[in-house]
Write a structure and sequence with these properties.
With 294 residues, this protein is mainly α. It has a domain of 108 residues. It is built from 15 helices and no strands.
């Protein structure tokens, strides 16, 4: 093997290793910074994304060598390796352009100084890469117009976006009622449970659930964690509604924790919540009872 071939193989190997590490690091960053309860599933895809990154890194090195050979006169410009390099460069340029467009749209969508007209324009624009990140930023923007929030709820395909609309102060009451009347689910209803203008009818709809309303047990547990616990923390609900939720049998850990941490809970409710879980919850309840002088 000539020194040139050896050095090129070494560069290709190092490029592939770099691509693998960068792709794996990107997946790990996405998993550990995500707020989704199912984000940990993304760890399964680390090897697959790493393999894709390794292939891409090797392809970039190969294309670079092909172009250098073409410029040096060792390969004709119409040869397959050089043409492949040209296609790869064109794809990289398109990707870079789309990424720049996405970053600009995300900057506007995240800017609290943006006007409702600007946000509506971003919402109507075509964004080829990571469109959902822009939509999430739009829903979180305090200037999001009511029409945009209503459109997301009307579409209804993305439960998390509906939840963000349900938590937004600009969402009209009829739209909140539409969310409450929709399918039950922790991801869809979590935002509505925190809304300061939630009505008693909405609270009744969200709180009046049982295991039979959910297909899987884990869905019911997550609903208690993200919706019922959020209702308990919402000062807009009545004491009667609070007492009814606090009296549920076998509450999940975070629902019981929300009870004993609430200033609205009585000493008996704190004691009962502490008795429904393990040692950590029991110890927390004893500490809370002592703090209150119960």
């Amino acid at each position: 093997m000539t020194p040139r071939k050896f050095s090129r193989k070494l560069v290709c190997f190092l490029s592939a290793a770099t691509g693998f590490l960068l792709a794996a690091a990107w997946v790990l960053h996405a998993v550990f910074t995500s707020t989704s309860s199912t984000a940990a599933i993304g760890l399964i895809f680390v090897p697959f994304y790493g393999l894709g990154g390794a292939i891409l890194g090797c392809a970039v090195a190969y294309a670079g060598f092909a172009l250098s050979d073409a410029f040096a006169g060792r390969k004709p410009w119409y040869s397959a390796p050089v043409l492949f390099s040209g296609l790869l460069a064109a794809a990289a340029a398109l990707f870079g352009s789309a990424l720049l467009q996405q970053r600009e749209a995300l900057a506007v969508a995240s800017d609290p100084r943006a006007t409702p007209e600007m946000l509506a324009e971003i919402s109507a624009s075509w964004i080829p890469l990571w469109r959902r990140n822009v939509d999430i930023a739009l829903m979180k923007n305090p200037a999001a117009p009511a029409a945009l929030l209503a459109a997301v709820v009307e579409d209804g395909r993305d439960g998390y976006l509906v939840s963000l609309a349900g938590a937004h102060p600009n969402t009209p009451l009829p739209v909140l009622e539409k969310i409450a009347a929709g399918p039950l689910g922790y991801e869809r209803m979590g935002g509505l449970a925190t809304h300061p203008r939630i009505t008693p009818a909405m609270v009744e709809r969200l709180a009046n659930v049982s295991r039979g309303d959910f297909q899987y047990d884990v869905e019911y547990k997550l609903y208690q964690t993200y919706v019922l616990a959020a209702l308990l923390r919402n000062p807009a609900i009545s004491q009667q509604a609070f007492d009814r939720i606090a009296a549920r049998e076998s509450p999940e850990y975070f629902l019981a924790l929300a009870v004993l941490r609430s200033p609205r809970a009585s000493c008996s409710q704190v004691a009962r919540a502490g008795s429904t879980g393990g040692e950590v919850l029991h110890t927390t309840a004893l500490s809370e009872l002592k703090r209150r002088g119960c």
